[in-house]
Structure formats: structure tokens, C-alpha cells
Amino acid sequence: KAGVTQTPRYLIKTRGQQVTLSCSPISGHRSVSWYQQTPGQGLQFLFEYFSETQRNKGNFPGRFSGRQFSNSRSEMNVSTLELGDSALYLCASSPWTSGDNEQFFGPGTRLTVL
Amino acid sequence: QQQVKQSPQSLIVQKGGISIINCAYENTAFDYFPWYQQFPGKGPALLIAIRPDVSEKKEGRFTISFNKSAKQFSLHIMDSQPGDSATYFCAARFNQFYFGTGTSLTVIP
Q1: CB distance B62 to B47 below 8 Å
Q2: How close does chain B come to A80, measured CA to CA in Å?
Q3: Do A56 and B102 touch (CB under 8 A)?
């Protein structure tokens, strides 16, 4: 089974621009979560989507948004980029069947904001 | 506020030694505690996980010890190998996953 794929792998943007990141979950997985990873902060939860609906949301400003499509693929958008948004953005998918909590992470998209 | 506190931030262990990483939490509603291993350029990968009704779980050289009353859990890596050199994250789940800040482990040959 193919793993979680994320595109693009690397991205360089300037302040004020917006960016869209894409995530394709493992086939059959219906839950997709997004995380921001920065040195010293670890992984910070952004949001989770399940069956095209946002199920949980972390403590990030409204500039961070996402969506999930009917094929479970997900996109994350960041508008009006700030220098502090430079990070590794990770996507994780989960089958989310009863009692199954395991998350499978993609390799991440490294975003640099100049 | 960090929901899961992890220590140490970095750890250097000799080959064959035991690596121990600790995590503490406050929210008693957490119902699942995984540990992840991350190599440079890769996403985190699940290493081992435990539920709060179990005090210890062992998988090969990796063991989770869970102390519910103290609200602490730890990862023990026995017979540490250079290939174990990576960053390790503990996490806890209640509706969403909360991660520790990570421990960079270096195993010296």
C-alpha cells in the first residue's frame, strides 16, 4: 500500500503571499490531520478532517484553513504568510475505525517564508 | 500551554546502553499514548503505543512504562544501536493528538 504523499516537498514564499499544500492519504483512510512542526515546539495540531468535515481544530489563526475532498485528499491553505509560518507541515492519515488510533505521517512540506 | 511535557531535550548514549525518555501529562481524559520516531527528512513513524489500563508494553527492544497515578510515561530503548539515532516524540490523545517537544537521541558506536 502506498504511504501518505505530500506535495510539494519544498516551497519558498515571501511574506504576504498565500500557499496551498496537498496531502493524499493512504487508500481507504478517511481521516486526515495536519500539523506544524518547528524546532523546540514539536508538532502542533492544526486541524483534522473526516469525510469532508472538519472534526477538530487546533489553536491557530484563521489564516490557516483546510478542506477535504470526497476522495479523502486534503489541502491546507495559509493566507498572508508571515515569517513565523516557516515550518515543516505534516499530514497524517488514519483509518479511524472503532478503536484504531494509529496515524501514518507523510514526509512533510518544508515551507520557507522570506 | 504544553499538554505533554517531554524530557530530556537531547540524549547521548553509548552503543548497547539503555536510552530513557520521559513524558508527563495533566489531562486524565487522555486515552492513548503513542511514541513516534523521526529521522531527518522523514515524517514521524509510530514506534509503540499504550493505553492507560496497561502499566507496561514491550515490543522488541522498545518498552513503554506507564504510571497512571503519577501521570507519567516513558520510553526505554534497550541495547541502543547507532541506527536508533533519531528524534523521538511522545504524544497523548483526547479528541486530537498532543505531542511532546521531542528528544534528539544520539547513540555513539
Answers
A1: yes
A2: 26
A3: no
